[in-house]
Specification:
Oligomer: heterodimer
Number of helices of chain A: 6
Largest sheet of chain A: none
Largest interface: A-B, 115 and 123 residues
Strand content of chain B: under 5%
Number of strands of chain B: 0
Strand content of chain A: under 5%
Shape of chain A: globular
Largest sheet of chain B: none
Number of strands of chain A: 0
Distance between the termini of chain A: 40 Å
Helix content of chain A: 55-70%
Structural class of chain B: mainly alpha
Order of helices and strands of chain A: HHHHHH
């Protein structure tokens, strides 16, 4: 039963990614040229509503359905890893025109070439795991 | 407005993403897509080579299921719910044409980069390199557009704001400094 809920959530997410065009290379290119409000509107409205929801959950001390605390733990403090990691991520996001969620969606659409992007992302993840202890965090 | 075939405006897409994120919180999970890449590495046996991949990936099955759903959603949307073209700001078309990309407005992804007929060494390097940077950067930064951009910012986490600033520095450098050399 839980698996079905996760699957349906994922399907809705995939439809939203595709239909909102957040999975389109063209929209990412347009965003980094500041040539349309579209992507900024998607992220801005998602964060605005997300913030209201999270704030409400915290105020009312709402627990997850299994009674546990919501997964809102603060992330560890650092600048280097977020800034450097973020810059590296941004370089790739603008080149491949896809971030991780849309990669899976585009694979489902049937773009064989996106499998090369996913392979690259797996290699990148693997390399991070190998060099993790040598990087500034 | 034909919501079935036309693309969705930002004020439908953005709130929908927020509701998915909030729903996952309520069922005791958190929204973050790139951590699936780590799970996939673990499944592939990467734990033998790096401690980073020695974790109980089975605890992440729920997220892998969402990943599978995201692929199914893409299939459904592209085949039954879309005209599969993306219209962007026309002022960008001359620059794209100068890069040899003429499929704006006619395709969902630029065919010059993504179609199998055009899959030469250069495109393979672009796709593999782009993916590699995304995968490495997401784990180094501890999250991607979903984990930092939506989940983290909604919770007003400073690390996520730093990561987003990084995403944009990287993206702007790529598009405005590196593109002329790549395309």
């Amino acid at each position: 039963m839980k698996t079905i809920i996760y699957l349906i959530t994922g399907i809705l997410f995939g439809i939203v990614m595709y239909k909102s065009e957040a999975a389109s290379w063209f929209r990412i290119y347009e965003m980094f040229n500041f040539a349309s409000f579209h992507m900024f509107g998607i992220m801005g409205s998602a964060v605005a509503i997300g913030f209201i929801g999270v704030h409400f959950f915290k105020r009312k001390n709402i627990k997850a359905i299994d009674g546990s605390e919501l997964s809102l733990q603060p992330k560890e403090k650092s600048i280097a890893r977020y800034l450097l990691g973020g810059i590296i991520f941004g370089l790739g996001w603008a080149l491949a025109g896809a971030c991780p969620g849309p990669m899976y969606t585009l694979a489902g659409v049937g773009y064989i070439s996106i499998l090369i992007v996913i392979l690259g992302a797996l290699i990148g993840t693997f390399l991070y795991g190998i060099f993790k202890n040598k990087l500034p965090h | 407005m034909n919501l079935i075939y036309e693309s969705w405006p930002w004020y439908i897409g953005g709130p929908a993403i927020a509701f998915i994120m909030l729903f996952l919180l309520l069922i005791g999970k958190k929204f973050g897509m790139s951590s699936n890449l780590r799970s996939l590495c673990s499944i592939g046996g990467a734990g033998k080579l790096a401690d980073f991949f020695q974790f109980d990936w089975k605890s992440q099955r729920w997220n892998l299921t969402i990943m599978l759903g995201a692929a199914i959603g893409g299939y459904l949307a592209a085949n039954y719910l879309s005209s599969n073209t993306v219209e962007i700001n026309e002022s960008l078309l001359p620059q794209l044409q100068a890069y040899g990309i003429n499929s704006a407005g006619k395709a969902y992804l630029p065919t010059e980069i993504f179609s199998m007929e055009n899959l030469g060494l250069k495109n393979i390097l672009i796709l593999l390199g782009g993916g590699l940077l995304v995968g490495f950067g997401a784990r180094y930064a501890g999250g991607c557009t979903s984990g930092h951009g939506i989940s983290g910012l909604s919770n007003l986490q400073l690390p996520s704001l730093i990561a987003i600033i990084g995403f944009f520095i990287g993206g702007l450098v790529m598009v405005h400094l590196f593109y002329p050399f790549i395309f």
